[in-house]
C-alpha cells in the first residue's frame, strides 16, 4: 500500500525535473544565441565598402586660347566598419597643363553619436558656409567654374586637419542644424618668399604652425515646415603666425551668411534653386617689412577682404516635353574685394550664365559663358570672356 502512495509522488518529481531541465536548456540556448549575435557584430564579413565619386572633362575658349582644359577623376571611398563607425575619403586625380596632379581632398573617421549627432576627425571639409561642404563636386555644382574667392588658392576655408561635431535639433517647430569644429587653421603669408602676397591668408591644411587652434562652426535654420529654405551663419577665429615669430599673435576672424531655397513651382512647371553666400575675412592689423634685393618696403593696411556669390537655377522638370524637362538655366554673380593698399589688391566682378542638359539625374553636359572684370593692382584692368563646355558624371 505504501508503494502505491509513493508512485504519484515520484511521477510529480520526474515531471518537475523534466520541466526544469527544459527551461534550463532554453535559457542556455538563448545565451548562446546572444553570444553568437555579439560575435557576428565583430566578424570582418559584416563590414561594407562603397566606391562613389565623380569625373569631368572641360573645354574652354577665349581670345587667347582654345583648348581641352583638364580632366578629373575624383573617387570617394566609404568604408563602414559598423552601424556607427565609418571612414570616408576623397582623392582627386587631375590632368592639367599636361601633368597629372594628385590631391587628398578629405579623409576622416566618422562616428555616430546617438540618433542625431556625428563626430568626425581627420582631414575634413570645413563647414564654413555651404559651397565646399555641399556643392563642390562638379555634378552638384551647377556651373563649370567656382565662385570668386573659392578654390585651393582662395580666401575661403576648404579643408583642414581637425575634429568636428555636427547635429540636428528643433527650435520650437523649426528644424535646425549646427557644426562645431577645431582645426589646425590657416596661416599668414609673411612675404619672406612671396613679397607680392604679404599679409594674405593661406588656407592650406597641414601641420599647425603654432600652439593655437582655429575654432569655428556653422548654424543653419529651416524657417518653413517644408524645409525649402535654409538660412546659415558661419564663423571662425584663430591665430595665424608662426610660433615665436613677430606674427605669432596676429589673428583672423572670418564670418559668413548663406542661404538655400529649393522649391517646386507649379505655375512655372519647374524647380527654382536659389543659393548664395557672403564672406567676410578680417585679419588683425600688422606692419609688414619686405626686403627685396636690399630695397626695404613697408606695408601697413586694413587687412579686410570679402567675397560673395548669388546663384539662381531653373529647371522645367514638369514639362511634358522630354527635351525641355532635361534642360536647366543657371546664372551666378560673384565678387571678390581685397585690401586696397595691399600688393595683392583687387576688385573682381564675375557673371556666369549657363545651360545644362541632364542626361540623367547625375550626368550633365554644361554650356556656360563667363565674363570677368578684374581691377588688379599688379596686372591692371582685365575684361575677358570665356566659353566653357563641361561633361560631368557622378557615380
Q: What does this protein structure show overall?
A:
This protein has 395 residues and is mainly β. The protein has a domain at 127-394: Porin. The protein contains three helices and 20 strands. The strands form three sheets. It has a 16-stranded antiparallel beta barrel with strand order 1-2-3-4-5-6-7-10-11-12-13-16-17-18-19-20. A two-stranded antiparallel ribbon has the order 8-9. Strands 14-15 form a two-stranded antiparallel ribbon. Mean pLDDT is 88; it is low at 1-12.
CATH architecture tag of one domain: Beta Barrel
CATH topology of one domain: Porin
- Describe the global form: globular
Rg is 30 Å
Following the backbone from N to C, one meets helices and strands in this order, namely: HEEEEEHEEEEEEEEEEEHEEEE
Task: Round the mean pLDDT to the nearest integer and report it.
Answer: 88
Outline the low-pLDDT stretches.
1-12
Structural class: mainly beta
Beta content: over 45%
Number of helices: 3
Identify the strand order in the major beta sheet.
1-2-3-4-5-6-7-10-11-12-13-16-17-18-19-20
Measure the end-to-end span.
88 Å
Q: How many extended strands?
A: 20
Helix coverage percent: 10-25%
CATH class of one domain: Mainly Beta
| Biggest beta sheet attributes | 16 strands, antiparallel, barrel
